[in-house]
Amino acid sequence: xxxxxxxxxxxxxxxxxxxxxxxxxxxxxxxxxxxxxxxxxxxxxxxxxxxxxxxxxxxxxxxxxxxxxxxxxxxxxxxxxxxxxxxxxxxxxxxxxxxxxxxxxxxxxxxxxxxxxxxxxxxxxxxxxxxxxxxxxxxxxxxxxxxxxxxxxxxxxxxxxxxxxxxxxxxxxxxxxxxxxxxxxxxxxxxxxxxxxxxxxxxxxxxxxxxxxxxxxxxxxxxxxxxxxxxxxxxxxxxxxxxxxxxxxxxxxxxxxxxxxxxxxxxxxxxxxxxxxxxxxxxxxxxxxxxxxxxxxxxxxxxxxxxxxxxxxxxx
Length: 316
Hints:
This protein is of the alpha/beta class. It contains 11 helices and 10 strands. The chain is 40% helix and 21% strand.
């Protein structure tokens, strides 16, 4: 009788304990991308997908909820079930700048990020036959012609926009930023010579190939697949960064599941084949796990808020 009772207690305890880390995931996980297919967020997710399935043995189902520069999906994240079977791509600086500018249906601190796994460095591009062979050529021209150098970029208040503002400050020049509705149209403007240059992401160099020249990139070190392109840092400009991409979960997601997802993403990031695929596509891998997320976000919020105030977009 006692044995029967003890077994019943064990069964009941297990039933109410919730999903344990060792059991996660037991079924397919939905991975929501807050942008349209084909962008950097989608490309990275597609590269992650087979490795997730190899590690967990369960499918990773990619879905799209595009709109309002990602805000449409992010504003709904916390209304979704926090059982670990819904995860969502998150982006910086978007999820810091958007709520600073206006009410977008969520606040920065509402979002629970569990891992930031890569970023795409900002970079300056000119057409291959441009008169500007080096970054110094462009700076010299900009100093003689204030406001005349035009940069295309992937939207207002994007990482590209912030980089252009910081570049002006660091180089002592005044240039003009022209926002486009994404990286594709911004690079088309460069190739069509509708602008002097482009402040875009390093991934653009993979797609444009020898049609463009990358004058400088904001990675910490030279990128392996663009080894001829200097970093801003080595040219004397403290400009390192870009668009960070990570994974968020609903706030109701248990702590052990948050950590389990972060651990899976970190494990994918350590696969040599995945590393090569990402680097070939122009991404720079990072590994900001859940355990380091608070410190990372505190630093990023302070950094972006300071720039947002200088740009006049922090209106709330």
